[in-house]
Amino acid sequence: MAISDIAAYAQLSPTEIEAFGAELDTIRSDIEETLGERDAAYIRRTILFQRTLDVVARLVLAGTKSKTGWVVGTAALAYAKSVENMEIGHNVGHGQWDWMNDPEIHSTTWEWDMVGPSAQWRYSHNYHHHVFSNVIGVDDDLGFGILRMTRDQQWEPQHLVQPLRNMLLALVFEWGIALHDFYSARDRADTEEGKNAARRTLRAKIGRQLAKDYVILPALSGRRWRRTLVANLTANLLRNLWAYVVIFCGHFPDGAEKFTPDTLQQETKAEWYLRQMVGAANFKAGPILAFSSGNLCYQIEHHLFPDLPSNRLAQISERVSALCEKYGVPYTSGPLPRQYLQTVRIIFKLALPDSGWRGVFARAGAPCGAVRSP
Q: CA-to-CA distance for 139 and 119, rounded, in angstroms?
């Protein structure tokens, strides 16, 4: 069930919660005071690596005729797109590098390689999701409007197909995010002109993306346009699947708690920290997997400090996990496969009403006594 009293859940007194928050503030201050050229060099190096890999992948696709060359080039392209999406686009969009005052590497100017406009994503994600994380009825990312992710959400017959919806969302994740962010931007607009402007922005971005990946780049390949077209389509598909897995594993496995709107009433900063911490989940990763996930294997730390550079999250996690142990606060983490399987299990379980198949048949009008338990 969703949490309505975060202090009672954590079994901490108000004094302990404030002390807990003060120690997290200290962690933030320590990191901010040490940001410098090493961090700036990291993001510039990452951008150079991603762009180089993208070019190399396309050269491999254009310069080889073998199936092996196509597979290698497509895999490299998919990885380049994943790095751009998660370690660069997502993190730059959070303002993690705004302190550099670099006009290119800035949250207000970076446009990522996705069909959804970065500006619409920034409002929906940075505000609605990160401020109100996992609050039922407030955080639109809780199931993205199509999945029932807690028993506190009323079951409807449409949820029976949510395992299928989940698979479809994984395949077209960038499109799901684009529409999700558009609706948020549209609903935010006060006038009809504002709503139309949000619609035009989305359509323009979709047009540019489709033209780049499925018209211009294939056309530049000449007689091999089909090879490039399929490679671009496959790379986007693989990027979508990977982004979906990382995001879902950070928000929905066992231990990532949900909250009622009551938790927002007179919520202090320390209580906000606490809600972020128990509402997210990490997965265990080495340096390569961490980089490949945009360092979102440290989802707890990212939710605590969404605007601190991603290359510092591993360092921050050591102090945060020790702090959790000190105060007895849950720190959810586990292997990536386990986190994902737990998420899938929740999706399948909540596709049914709380009474299981008996509830499905009861709503359909069948006599309850005629229904056998599975």
A: 18
Distance CA 4, CA 338 (A): 28
Q: What are phi and psi of 259, to 5 degrees?
A: -135, 150
Q: Which residues lie across from 283 on neighbouring strands?
A: 334
| Residue-wise pLDDT tens digits, 106-119 | 999 999 999 999 99
Buried b (16+ CB within 10 A) or exposed e, 262-286: ebeeeeeebbbbbbbbbbbbbbebe
Residue 147: is it exposed, middle or buried by C-beta count within 10 angstroms (0-12/13-18/19+)? buried
What six digits make up the tokens of 160?
A: 């029976």
| DSSP state, residue 262 | G
Chain centre to alpha carbon of residue 118: 14
Asked whether residue 373 carries a pLDDT value surpassing 50, the answer given is no
For the whole model, what pTM was predicted? 0.92
Give, in order, the Cα–Cα distances in Å from 311 to each of 92, 98, 104, 293. Answer: 12, 15, 19, 12
Contact criterion met (CB below 8 Å) for 54 and 62 = no
